[in-house]
Amino acid sequence: DARVTQTPRHKVTEMGQEVTMRCQPILGHNTVFWYRQTMMQGLELLAYFRNRAPLDDSGMPKDRFSAEMPDATLATLKIQPSEPRDSAVYFCASGLGTSGRSPKTQYFGPGTRLLVL
Amino acid sequence: QQQVKQSPQSLIVQKGGISIINCAYENTAFDYFPWYQQFPGKGPALLIAIRPDVSEKKEGRFTISFNKSAKQFSLHIMDSQPGDSATYFCAASRRGQETSGSRLTFGEGTQLTVNP
């Protein structure tokens, strides 16, 4: 049963600390998305990668957020320094895009619930 | 700029009733309209999707109705069950080209409660 995995599932940290969230996409998927979900803003796309290359990260605050794919099985989202307003659930999703088209279906992980005090 | 607007924000339905959630979009270049279902503590999961070349798509108790001229689409859940209680998100994208425009734009979400 292939699924997207995310670690950690929960994270509580203090303002100013670095936070690293990890995602393992479904094996064979070539597109990875990072979303942030809050009550106020709903689901927001932060960044997405195709074949490990960043395709769009315009939704991500550049000064403190960074996203990378060191290899095809790992995507990371870092926040440094973290702030209370970063408190949210962060979802990773993966999909298979073909022929220059975005994936028809995005498979979401269970999310990382982040609380910054 | 909210390109996909969803209503209602919350919905309470009795078991066996019909749940209807509506979405409206602005970008006429959108060509793919999925609905995602999210249970508490879980990530969203694709429920059903439609392309604009058809006006309706049905999968079991779930139906999408699509009105291209009005730029609206809706999800109908027939014979609603307590197990359908979840948050539902509509979304839209332009799949034809791998650009920033092909990202999924989500609606605000509708929290559905089906009472037994």
Task: Spell out the blueprint of helices and strands.
The complex is a heterodimer of chains A (117) and B (116).
Chain A: E1 5-7, E2 10-13, E3 19-24, E4 31-38, E5 42-50, E6 53-56, E7 65-71, E8 74-79, E9 88-95, E10 107-108, E11 112-116
Parallel strand pairs in A: 2-11
Antiparallel strand pairs in A: 1-3, 3-8, 4-5, 4-9, 5-6, 7-8, 9-10, 9-11
Chain B: E1 4-7, E2 10-14, E3 19-25, E4 33-38, E5 45-50, E6 56-59, E7 62-67, E8 72-77, E9 86-92, E10 105-106, E11 110-115
Parallel strand pairs in B: 2-11
Antiparallel strand pairs in B: 1-3, 3-8, 4-5, 4-9, 6-7, 7-8, 9-10, 9-11
Outline the structure in words.
The complex is a heterodimer of chains A (117) and B (116). Chain A is an all-beta fold. Chain A contains no helices and eleven strands. In chain A, a hairpin with a 2-residue loop joins β5 and β6. In chain A, strands 2, 4, 5, 6, 9, 10 and 11 form a seven-stranded mixed β-sheet that branches. In chain A, strands 1-3-8-7 form a four-stranded antiparallel β-sheet, with no helix packed on it. Chain A starts with a strand and ends with a strand. Chain B is an all-beta fold and 116 residues long. Helices cover 0% and strands 51% of the residues of chain B. Chain B is built from no helices and eleven strands. In chain B, strands 2, 4, 5, 9, 10 and 11 form a six-stranded mixed β-sheet that branches. A five-stranded antiparallel β-sheet of chain B has the order 1-3-8-7-6, with no helix packed on it. In chain B, a hairpin with a 4-residue loop joins β7 and β8. Chain B is globular. Chain B starts with a strand and ends with a strand. The mean pLDDT of chain B is 90. Chains A and B meet through β5 and β10 of A and β5 of B.
